[in-house]
Write a structure and sequence with these properties.
The protein is mostly helical and 220 residues long. The chain has 14 helices and no strands. Helix 7 packs across helix 10. Pfam families: Mesothelin (PF06060).
Length: 220
Amino acid sequence: MFLLQTNIIVSNYLREPGVLNTAALNAIGGKLLCTASEEKLRTILPTDLKNTNPLNISTCTQLKKDILYGIAKDAFEDRSGNLSANYRQISSYLGGAPAIDLQRLAAANVNMDIETFLNLNPVEVVKLSAQEVRDLLGVNLPKLKENESDPLVQAWIRTHSQADVRSLGVGLSGGRPSEQEFELGHFDFAEGHNSASSNHLGLQCSFLVGVIIIAIQRVL
Protein backbone atom coordinates (compact mmCIF):
# COMPACT_ATOMS: atom_id res chain seq x y z
CA MET A 1 0.00 0.00 0.00
CA PHE A 2 2.80 2.37 0.94
CA LEU A 3 4.65 1.57 -2.29
CA LEU A 4 1.52 2.26 -4.32
CA GLN A 5 1.04 5.61 -2.62
CA THR A 6 4.68 6.48 -3.24
CA ASN A 7 4.34 5.63 -6.92
CA ILE A 8 1.25 7.83 -7.18
CA ILE A 9 3.05 10.74 -5.53
CA VAL A 10 6.03 10.36 -7.86
CA SER A 11 3.80 10.07 -10.92
CA ASN A 12 2.01 13.27 -9.93
CA TYR A 13 5.36 14.97 -9.38
CA LEU A 14 6.56 13.96 -12.82
CA ARG A 15 3.51 15.60 -14.36
CA GLU A 16 4.26 18.89 -12.66
CA PRO A 17 6.27 21.59 -14.48
CA GLY A 18 9.90 22.02 -13.58
CA VAL A 19 13.23 20.32 -14.10
CA LEU A 20 14.52 17.00 -12.80
CA ASN A 21 17.68 17.64 -10.78
CA THR A 22 20.08 15.19 -9.15
CA ALA A 23 18.13 14.91 -5.91
CA ALA A 24 14.89 14.22 -7.78
CA LEU A 25 16.50 11.65 -10.07
CA ASN A 26 18.02 9.74 -7.15
CA ALA A 27 14.69 9.76 -5.33
CA ILE A 28 12.64 8.69 -8.35
CA GLY A 29 14.92 5.98 -9.75
CA GLY A 30 15.02 4.60 -13.27
CA LYS A 31 11.82 2.54 -13.34
CA LEU A 32 9.55 5.42 -12.38
CA LEU A 33 11.58 7.85 -14.44
CA CYS A 34 10.53 5.86 -17.50
CA THR A 35 6.92 6.91 -16.83
CA ALA A 36 7.83 10.58 -17.31
CA SER A 37 7.04 12.28 -20.60
CA GLU A 38 9.69 12.89 -23.23
CA GLU A 39 9.37 16.62 -22.56
CA LYS A 40 10.06 16.08 -18.87
CA LEU A 41 13.14 13.97 -19.58
CA ARG A 42 14.55 16.70 -21.79
CA THR A 43 14.68 19.01 -18.76
CA ILE A 44 17.46 16.89 -17.21
CA LEU A 45 20.82 18.64 -17.35
CA PRO A 46 23.99 16.64 -18.12
CA THR A 47 25.59 17.87 -14.89
CA ASP A 48 22.63 16.60 -12.85
CA LEU A 49 22.64 13.21 -14.55
CA LYS A 50 26.40 12.92 -14.07
CA ASN A 51 25.97 13.28 -10.31
CA THR A 52 23.05 10.85 -10.17
CA ASN A 53 23.38 7.21 -9.16
CA PRO A 54 23.22 4.89 -12.22
CA LEU A 55 19.61 4.54 -13.37
CA ASN A 56 18.11 1.35 -14.76
CA ILE A 57 16.15 2.55 -17.79
CA SER A 58 15.51 -0.86 -19.35
CA THR A 59 11.73 -0.39 -19.09
CA CYS A 60 11.78 2.92 -20.97
CA THR A 61 10.51 3.20 -24.52
CA GLN A 62 13.19 3.41 -27.18
CA LEU A 63 12.57 7.12 -27.68
CA LYS A 64 13.07 7.79 -23.97
CA LYS A 65 16.24 5.69 -23.96
CA ASP A 66 17.50 7.76 -26.88
CA ILE A 67 16.81 11.00 -25.01
CA LEU A 68 18.51 9.84 -21.82
CA TYR A 69 21.50 8.50 -23.73
CA GLY A 70 21.98 11.84 -25.45
CA ILE A 71 22.07 13.57 -22.07
CA ALA A 72 24.36 10.90 -20.59
CA LYS A 73 26.74 11.19 -23.53
CA ASP A 74 27.09 14.91 -22.91
CA ALA A 75 27.61 14.17 -19.22
CA PHE A 76 30.24 11.45 -19.47
CA GLU A 77 32.05 11.98 -22.76
CA ASP A 78 35.44 13.57 -22.16
CA ARG A 79 36.87 16.43 -24.18
CA SER A 80 38.48 14.09 -26.69
CA GLY A 81 35.17 12.37 -27.36
CA ASN A 82 36.27 9.24 -25.50
CA LEU A 83 33.32 7.27 -24.10
CA SER A 84 35.30 4.29 -22.86
CA ALA A 85 36.98 6.29 -20.10
CA ASN A 86 33.60 6.62 -18.40
CA TYR A 87 32.12 3.36 -19.66
CA ARG A 88 30.93 2.21 -16.24
CA GLN A 89 29.00 5.42 -15.66
CA ILE A 90 27.39 5.52 -19.09
CA SER A 91 26.71 1.78 -19.46
CA SER A 92 23.21 1.96 -17.95
CA TYR A 93 22.17 4.45 -20.65
CA LEU A 94 23.59 2.60 -23.67
CA GLY A 95 20.15 1.32 -24.66
CA GLY A 96 19.87 4.56 -26.60
CA ALA A 97 23.32 4.46 -28.21
CA PRO A 98 23.63 4.57 -32.02
CA ALA A 99 25.79 2.04 -33.85
CA ILE A 100 28.62 4.51 -34.37
CA ASP A 101 29.07 4.91 -30.61
CA LEU A 102 28.88 1.15 -30.07
CA GLN A 103 31.60 0.76 -32.69
CA ARG A 104 33.77 3.24 -30.80
CA LEU A 105 33.27 1.26 -27.60
CA ALA A 106 34.12 -1.95 -29.45
CA ALA A 107 37.37 -0.40 -30.63
CA ALA A 108 38.16 0.46 -27.00
CA ASN A 109 37.68 -3.20 -25.90
CA VAL A 110 35.38 -2.35 -22.99
CA ASN A 111 34.31 -5.99 -22.35
CA MET A 112 30.61 -5.11 -22.26
CA ASP A 113 28.63 -7.33 -19.90
CA ILE A 114 25.91 -9.43 -21.51
CA GLU A 115 23.07 -7.72 -19.61
CA THR A 116 24.04 -4.34 -21.05
CA PHE A 117 24.43 -5.86 -24.51
CA LEU A 118 20.98 -7.44 -24.47
CA ASN A 119 19.44 -4.07 -23.56
CA LEU A 120 20.95 -2.28 -26.56
CA ASN A 121 18.78 -1.05 -29.41
CA PRO A 122 18.38 -4.00 -31.84
CA VAL A 123 18.11 -1.59 -34.78
CA GLU A 124 21.64 -0.40 -34.00
CA VAL A 125 23.13 -3.76 -32.99
CA VAL A 126 22.35 -5.37 -36.35
CA LYS A 127 24.62 -2.76 -37.95
CA LEU A 128 27.62 -4.21 -36.09
CA SER A 129 29.95 -6.62 -37.87
CA ALA A 130 30.97 -9.93 -36.34
CA GLN A 131 34.36 -8.48 -35.45
CA GLU A 132 32.73 -5.48 -33.75
CA VAL A 133 30.46 -7.75 -31.70
CA ARG A 134 33.52 -9.78 -30.72
CA ASP A 135 35.46 -6.68 -29.71
CA LEU A 136 32.50 -5.12 -27.90
CA LEU A 137 31.84 -8.14 -25.68
CA GLY A 138 35.44 -9.24 -25.31
CA VAL A 139 35.75 -11.81 -22.53
CA ASN A 140 31.95 -11.97 -22.30
CA LEU A 141 31.50 -13.17 -25.89
CA PRO A 142 30.81 -16.84 -24.91
CA LYS A 143 27.69 -15.69 -23.06
CA LEU A 144 26.05 -15.05 -26.43
CA LYS A 145 25.50 -18.80 -26.73
CA GLU A 146 23.71 -18.87 -23.38
CA ASN A 147 21.39 -16.14 -24.67
CA GLU A 148 21.02 -17.40 -28.24
CA SER A 149 17.21 -17.27 -28.07
CA ASP A 150 17.15 -13.63 -26.95
CA PRO A 151 15.35 -11.41 -29.51
CA LEU A 152 18.36 -9.13 -29.90
CA VAL A 153 20.76 -12.02 -30.56
CA GLN A 154 18.32 -13.55 -33.02
CA ALA A 155 17.94 -10.20 -34.80
CA TRP A 156 21.70 -9.99 -35.28
CA ILE A 157 21.91 -13.60 -36.50
CA ARG A 158 19.12 -13.13 -39.05
CA THR A 159 20.80 -10.09 -40.59
CA HIS A 160 24.26 -11.63 -40.95
CA SER A 161 25.67 -14.45 -43.02
CA GLN A 162 26.14 -17.95 -41.71
CA ALA A 163 29.87 -17.43 -42.11
CA ASP A 164 29.73 -14.33 -39.90
CA VAL A 165 27.71 -16.15 -37.27
CA ARG A 166 30.13 -19.09 -37.23
CA SER A 167 33.12 -16.75 -37.12
CA LEU A 168 32.19 -15.70 -33.59
CA GLY A 169 33.28 -19.16 -32.52
CA VAL A 170 30.78 -19.59 -29.69
CA GLY A 171 28.49 -22.18 -31.28
CA LEU A 172 25.70 -19.94 -32.56
CA SER A 173 23.67 -21.32 -35.46
CA GLY A 174 21.63 -19.68 -38.19
CA GLY A 175 22.23 -16.69 -40.40
CA ARG A 176 21.73 -15.94 -44.06
CA PRO A 177 23.44 -18.26 -46.55
CA SER A 178 26.44 -16.54 -48.08
CA GLU A 179 26.56 -16.05 -51.85
CA GLN A 180 29.11 -18.85 -52.19
CA GLU A 181 27.03 -21.23 -50.09
CA PHE A 182 23.93 -20.34 -52.10
CA GLU A 183 25.70 -20.97 -55.39
CA LEU A 184 27.04 -24.28 -54.09
CA GLY A 185 23.56 -25.35 -53.04
CA HIS A 186 22.19 -24.26 -56.39
CA PHE A 187 24.91 -26.24 -58.16
CA ASP A 188 24.12 -29.34 -56.12
CA PHE A 189 20.45 -28.98 -56.95
CA ALA A 190 21.22 -28.58 -60.63
CA GLU A 191 23.50 -31.61 -60.55
CA GLY A 192 20.81 -33.63 -58.84
CA HIS A 193 18.23 -32.46 -61.36
CA ASN A 194 20.49 -33.34 -64.29
CA SER A 195 21.27 -36.72 -62.76
CA ALA A 196 17.58 -37.46 -62.31
CA SER A 197 16.90 -36.42 -65.92
CA SER A 198 19.69 -38.71 -67.14
CA ASN A 199 18.32 -41.62 -65.15
CA HIS A 200 14.85 -41.00 -66.54
CA LEU A 201 16.22 -40.90 -70.10
CA GLY A 202 18.14 -44.13 -69.49
CA LEU A 203 15.00 -45.88 -68.32
CA GLN A 204 13.14 -44.72 -71.42
CA CYS A 205 15.90 -46.06 -73.69
CA SER A 206 15.96 -49.40 -71.88
CA PHE A 207 12.20 -49.68 -72.24
CA LEU A 208 12.33 -48.97 -75.99
CA VAL A 209 15.12 -51.50 -76.52
CA GLY A 210 13.08 -54.10 -74.67
CA VAL A 211 10.02 -53.40 -76.84
CA ILE A 212 12.09 -53.73 -80.03
CA ILE A 213 13.61 -57.04 -78.91
CA ILE A 214 10.16 -58.46 -78.12
CA ALA A 215 8.84 -57.32 -81.50
CA ILE A 216 11.76 -58.97 -83.34
CA GLN A 217 11.29 -62.22 -81.43
CA ARG A 218 7.62 -62.33 -82.42
CA VAL A 219 8.48 -61.81 -86.10
CA LEU A 220 11.01 -64.62 -86.01
